[in-house]
Amino acid sequence: MGTILLETLIWWLGLFAIGLIMLPICVLVFSKLKDRGYIFAKVMGLIITSYLVFVMAATRLMPFGLFTILMMVGLLWIAECIWLLISKKAAVRFGNVLKDRSFWMHAVLEEAVFTLALFLWAYLRSRTPALNHTEMFMDHGFVKSILNADYLPAPDMWYAGSAINYYYYGQYVTAFLCKLTGTDSAVGYNLMMATLFAMTLVLSFSVVYQLLHMKQGMKTWMAAAGGILSALVTGISGNAHSFLYGMIFPLFTKLGFMHYTYPHEIDRYWYPDATRYIHCFEGSQDETITEFPLYSFVLSDLHAHVVDIMFVLLLLALLIVAVLSVQDNPWKRVGISPVLLLCGFVLGIMGMTNYWDFAIYMVVFAFFAVYLAWKQYGSWKEPRLYLTALWQTACLYLIGKLVMLPFSLTFQKINVGLALAQDHSPVFEYLVLWGIPVVWVSFFLVYCVRRKWDVGEADIITMILCVCAVGLIVSPEILYIKDIYASAPRCNTMFKFTYEAFILFGLVTGYIAVRILCREGISVRKRVISGILMLMLLIPPFCYPYFAIHEVYFTGKNAGTLDGLAYIREQDAGEYAAIQWIDENTSADDIVLEANALSYSEGDRISMATGRQTLQGWWTHQMLWRNLSAEDLDVRINEIREIYEGTDAVQTEALIQQYGIDYIYIGKREREAFPQLQILKLQLLADHIYDFDGTLLFECRQ
Question: Which residues, in sequence order, are CB contacts of 442 under 8 Å at separation 6+?
Fold first, then answer.
């Protein structure tokens, strides 16, 4: 336990230092918010420092290493100091913030919540840390490959001779923090999941807390209550599926009212079912994914859409600041503002992390741009309003694309297309997932109508978020983005759109609850009735944490470590020893051949664990990332088989030389995959043979 606490503390110190360095800029950017953007300084500092290093490594001006990281962090700090020395106004404002007791109260509270959540989830990950299922292999392999690389993009560990062709900035940020704190990738992976959980809670709280404080006369405890509710709904709740299928239907079955059996051999509710609910029915190919943050945290795939949560929440906070700062904009004449430039930068980071979010939040910003222009001109009949909104949207798009340029120059676009949806969600299944959030939005719509649309800025911002959330759940019923998954055509679109919808619905929930319960002139009777109705709506989604967290973290043995690869040592000591030796004794650009494997399997474990390249890994993923056909991939697969099973030593040597293979690995999977394994042939072609308790590693003759 002491090791876990120390590793988490060092990680926390790295994040704290980055936030502290970025604080002077953030307290001025977020000066109109109650907490002066204290907690957002962590995210802002992380993306700015990581981006500076990214540009250096992507342009090959400086290698991706600790020295470059410290230099960029140091330069940022020096630039801030010079700015404060030159600008007396900025220095005075920053000094006044530091003297403000309210700022320190908010800062201490937010830091405490973040720290508690970070350590809590780190503890849970230490109970079940193994990176051994779903797409953990892919995510850790990327992190490890990036850590090994001097320059970016890093080599693709599953396609020797090629670079990563994926939106990998989230894995890069993880590697950045690992470098900064000296944390091993397998430990850093789990700590990053804990960080994302903590960030989701505290940033969601802050966004809604600030929104509620935009209302004149709003008491602090009310705003805090709304922020807490939104944080819990966004980060810790699920949908109504677990309530119905995990509790109500089994209960009714026991009482004899119906007959329901669990669809799995485990004979209990299985938490992933809540995210795979809208599925195939007779005559349909409709298989969809409707994930949400808590499922992501429990599952612990370090995916693009999960890392992007903290960038999304940062963008929304900046948009709130933009609304509050319309009249104070020093660049009114050019129709843009410094805050909007920052929004464009964040959008660019999102584009490198998860391009789906770049597209989604460009649309969200377009709504905000219209409102910002209306605030500036005060009339919907003013033609300049729409021109300004269009100009601002175009500017943010161009800024985002410019920020993405170091990434885009080496990225081969993944083929996509737009098509009309042929399958549609069954009404009952659709309502199970989205009925409750839509009811919350309906509450707010009725509230606004009854006030005859006499609403404030925060209400309008909330309505924009509501409209965007509803649009995101409706869109996949009409259109979808085509990709290689023809057997489940709208799966990815449903996945990415509804994930963001869940976050937006979660944010508005706390705001709507406080605005309705604490509205002026409401009687005690109506307040009680409204509160009971809202509580009833909150019960179903909050059943999910019990099923998910309990099953993953409290049904098995406590591993007692954050090392995500420690399980390999228990499963196969020889393989673990080989991984350790490869990590310590081979070069980062060495190619280590192992048996090719299908996607979502535990194959390609050596390349995943070490970040060293192998000839071909995870078949379906390479098809998607590189726009390759099955025939293209079969070429390498056949060549791998020829190296392991072929009897022609000359041909094998030619293939080794062709691909520059440095080592050939033979473990249990290779012996199973290649029953005609030609060990004697490989011995003839090797300079050295390393034996790790029966696991062999051949060093090829070059």
Answer: none
- Cβ count near 622 (within 10 Å): 22
560: alpha, beta or left? (left if phi > 0; alpha if psi -120 to 50): left
559 vs 619: CA distance, rounded Å:
31
The conformation of residue 155, written as its DSSP 8-state character, comes to B
Q: What are phi and psi for residue 420, nearest 5 degrees?
A: -75, 140
Yes or no: say if 583 and 610 are a contact pair by the CB < 8 Å rule: yes
C-alpha span between 463 and 177 (Å, rounded)? 36
- Helices 524-538 and 491-517 meet at what angle, rounded to 10? 160
Asked if residues 294 and 551 have their Cβ atoms less than 8 Å apart, the reply is no
297: CB partners within 8 A, 6+ apart: 121, 193, 196, 197, 200, 235, 306
Tens-place pLDDT, residues 491-529 = 889 999 999 999 999 999 999 999 988 877 787 888 888
CB count within 10 Å of CB 157 equals: 29
For the stretch 606-665, pLDDT in tens is 999 999 999 998 888 888 888 888 888 889 999 999 999 999 999 999 999 999 999 999
Using CA atoms, how far apart are residues 643 and 97, in angstroms rounded to an integer? 67
CA distance 617 to 595: 8
Query: Which residue reads 């970016």 in tokens?
Result: 152
How far apart CA 498 and CA 509 sit, in angstroms, is: 16
Tell me what the mean pLDDT of segment 274-278 comes to.
90
Percentage of the chain lying above the pLDDT 70 cut: 98
pLDDT in tens, 441-498: 998 998 888 877 777 899 999 999 999 999 999 999 999 888 766 677 888 899 999 9
Q: C-alpha angle 448/360/47, rounded to 5°?
A: 110
Q: Can you list the positions of beta strands (E) in 497-597?
A: 592-593
Q: Is 362 exposed, middle or buried (0-12, 13-18, 19+ CB in 10 A)?
A: middle
Q: What angle do CA 422, 432, 538 make, to 5 degrees?
A: 145
Q: Is 216 left (phi over 0), alpha (psi -120 to 50) or beta?
A: beta
Q: Is the pTM of this model over 0.70?
A: yes
Contact criterion met (CB below 8 Å) for 350 and 397: no
Give the E-state strand segments of 308-369 in sequence order: none
* Closest residue by Cα to residue 485 from 621, 302, 359, 292: 621
Question: Which tokens in the block code for residue 335?
Answer: 């129709």
